[in-house]
Fold this sequence. Notes:
- By secondary structure, the chain is α/β, with parallel strands linked by helices.
Amino acid sequence: MITDKIWICKDISDEAVCELANKASISTLLAKVFLSRGINDIDYIKRCIAPSFENLHDPFLLNDMDKAVCRIMDALSSKEKILIYADYDVDGVTSATVLFNFLKRLGGNLDYFIPDRLTDGYGLTLSSANKVIKSEPELIITLDCGISSINEVDYINENNIDIIITDHHECIDTLPDALAVINPKRPDSRYPFKELAGVGVCFKLINALSIKMDLGDIYFDYIDLVTIGTVADVVPLVDENRIIVSYGLKKLKETSNIGLDELLKSSNPKDVEVTSWTIAFVIAPRINAAGRLGDASRGFRLFTTSSRNEAIQIVEELNNENKTRQDIEAVIVDQAIQILEDDDSYKKKKVLVLAGEGWHHGVIGIVASKITERFYKPCILLAIEDGICKGSGRSIEGFDVFMALSSCEGLLQRYGGHEMAGGLTLSLENLEKFDKMINEYADKVLTYKDLQPRLKVDVKLNKKEINMKSIREVELLAPFGAGNSSPLFLLEDIKIRDIRTVGNGKHLKMTVEDEGSKYDAIGFGKGELESIFQQGDLTDVACMIEINSWNGTEKVQLNIKDMRYGHEELLKHMYFYSLDKCFCYKNEGYGDKYINIQKNNVPYMMEMEYNEEKLIQLINDKRSLVILNSLKSIKKFKLFFAMNSSCIKKQINIVYTCLYEYMDDSIDVIINPDIDNVHVNKFDFVILFGSFIDKEYRDQIILKAQSMERPCICMMDDEESFRDQVIPKRQDLEVVYRYLKASCQNTMLIENIFVLTRKIINSYKIGLNYFKLKKIIDIFSELGFFNVRYKDKCVVEISSTNDIGKKTSLENSSLYKKLQNI
């Protein structure tokens, strides 16, 4: 259909909104956003709107901070060699540069080591430990890594070198035996905020050093780099992270770091504000490119250089490598998707484990993210080399990658990470076992409902709430990012006044109208929707609301994140789509079986006129299944439920075609059921409500209920002849035939039958729908006019045959005759 996402939007009472708005002195719109996110604490709201450095936590609340600070101060005073060891991603590189620049300013005797992604691997390994030992440091400080390096720390200790671990990743059962282990996620941590990035932990370290050494606020000079690493590592932008990034974005406008300044000049247009989005999608990928395809230390050198010429040269290298990275990534994405599409077994798996020879280690994490986003399943992507698989995992809400990897610990050589992402290494011979084991774990913790993508909408809007003042107040929630996304608003049944694509068809541009108010709308990367929606459609949009400034003029603009048909249009589409899925024509003989059962006086079927009181009594007292087969019946039953909600004790659960989950406290309603997949034995009785397209189809349902000894009540409505809605007439066939013959010179790929339906309706002004058109295409296929190959229910490839144009009787199509018999 148009979107396969479930839109989730909380209902918030007007009373609660007004109360919070008054107490916090904010608009009702902003109050709605806070309440939708479960926030009603006035002090928290005030801190959120106006982040302050005064609200940062005491760094000495972090375990071992005092020990670490004292040891670093001793090393500084005695000029001991301090080696900074950091991970190769943006978080690690910015951590290394922050600590290096800070300690250099204090006269430290410094060295650094950033592991190579390909030769050294992730984190602190025995191989990389050997390399740093050879440089003979007296103190090693790890940044953004080391929390799981038990053996490596022991090895360093054996070589009489002190080591301080600073990290933010999840801890395993045993902590490394380091001089100090600073990690807010330590099991024994009393630190009030657990979600600092690695560079955030580094920031707390230089904050503590500044306090202990009475250096004032010099640690604040590095807030710009701390902000880059924090946003890039996708930690929640709440609490301390929010404060850091709020101040850091301001400092980025006038950064004193030469390398960062040149990187911003190169990648961000002049006078364009740097936001968290800029960091995540423009700045961070360029820094990451250094470590993904080559030497990660280039990012370190960029942010520690005092030479502008060197900075310019490194920036140029990073820009070039970022482009190369994008090309390599695109190839692996295509290969991974091909593997998934060629192997049906992946459809049944809840975790997608993919491995390939020659896949570049540096980009598979990004590719895993793209696969997860596209298929909405956790993905583990592995590069195979010399019998070893190394890779990354990305997850969806409700599936903790770190815990999943922990459940497979016996098969893994190394692993680490957190809830949404992880890294791992295993031997090729264990790959198949790992695939099986992690999917067994997923089967225990994920339902198929969890694999349905969700779109969380903050607030349902009305026209009165869309104005410059309220939008500017919502912008106080910035900086936006993980854990603090830009508010997403729902506008229902807005009319499309104009629709087109821009950017070579890549983006969607619209003008929409809501109760007389017109707004511009842009959908980045949504250009394909132009072929689905058209002028005059009533649609629902999930969007961000922004102020667009152009040539000195400010206007409200909707930034479209998803679209769906308005309620009435969607109901029709879902109805006709499910009708096609359920409606088989293999119904010969069912009538005789039905009659025989009736002759035997089996008391399982009763017909009655529509009676609201009786219907309420039935669904309240028993476990009931309601089956509907006409649009009129669907609307009438929904209205019945809405009007009698105070008398009905249960929730309503409406599905199309099949019901997969059964809940005792609901009224289950199936529209157009697939008879083979209706488990009537799970109910006390079945209610057939309203009219049915075909008596034989209705009798099949009754027959199944009787075979399971379940009473079946047919609650008849006014007899409604709705067969004209679904049974094509001769003139319908003539019009579609002319259209296909003119359009299909050779082979035509119809990517969306719904869209084709609307094109024919607009061209010929006839009554047509998905079900009718699909049956007409099938009739033409049966008559030999066209070769028809369905790729799925909406995508079909049609090519003309030599018989096109030949006269033949429609009666030669068994499908046509069956439809006419109905």
